[in-house]
Amino acid sequence: MAAPAPGEPGAAASAVLDELARNFTYGAQGAGNGSLSGAWYRRNQIHLFGVLLAILGNLVISISLNIQKYSHLRSAQQEHPRPYFRSVLWWGGVILMALGETGNFVAYGFAPVTLIAPLGCMSVTGSAITSVMFLRENLRASDLIGMTLALAGTYLLVNFAPNITQAISARTVQYYFVGWQFMIYMILEILVFCILLYFHKRKGMKHIVILLTLVALLASVTVISVKAVSGMITFSVMDKMQLTYPIFYIMCIIMIASCVFQVKLLNQATKLYNTATVVPVNHIFFTISAIIAGIIFYQEFLGAAFLTIFIYLFGCFLSFLGVVLVTRNREKEHLPQSYIDFGNVPGKQILDKIQPDSSGLSYGTLPDGSDSIKSPNEEKKGV
Hints:
Blueprint: H1 11-23, H2 38-76, H3 88-107, H4 113-116, H5 121-134, H6 141-160, H7 170-177, H8 180-201, H9 208-238, H10 246-272, H11 275-297, H12 306-327, H13 376-382
């Protein structure tokens, strides 16, 4: 059957299906082969470098978090614990955290925002593996399923994310900064932010959705400024100096200020809610806000086919689902036991424990080996 002519209605759909076939075809290197071909690598090698930096950065962050947590646990077990900032192990975790965040920062200079931001799922799923090694936590079936879904989503994201390669110069940032799309977006974002902040501060509403929506709105500004600063530094190293333009320092100020307030609101959320709830919701909200920011400010999906966008969004959904499965019920595994074990008490059996009274708030008593039933007179004498 002959392919439709360029002017016919089915031409666009046929072109998209051809592109999908090329993306999923694995064979010898050469033009027209799929995502393992030399042509695909030559077209996407800059993006792949950014993806590799982001994945490694997120994995290093997951290792650093577990190292810091391990240092706190080890310090708590000591008879005379030292302050955590005097621990060499804790500082090692901080250095790894800085390296991981630097990798993420540099990655924004080589790949689109809509490709780098969703890769934060690698930090959450990687933490499930490193916690087994450092904290001796159990690897659950939901962890394995979640990591599988996250990897599948990451594969779809890398293959179907925007394929544009932008040279982020100071003039490019200035052009996008005064564009009508960004102006409308910022007006709406500031309006929503002020309304939510009013309910949070004046009305005392501490719901997790309100707090993490405020964090996500700030995160969209952070992502835009990080991409601009990283892109201009990359352009300065590879082509022409861009650090003399005022827009570079404006973006640096926006990046630092938005990060500070973002961390402050996120700390409030972690104080009010457990980590197993905050982490997946924050990841989903942050990723959605970053994708919207990349689409509006940097116009990263301009001219993309509908089917490509659909598969990209499906990859995001798989990564979100993977993060939820990995973090689900994780805090409940570390709840303290519902009894107090006194171990070997003289004259008592080793299995005797103080159990909370199920009918009240008081605790029960240990059996002393004598008759468990006493007369009322004996009880009065005992009192």
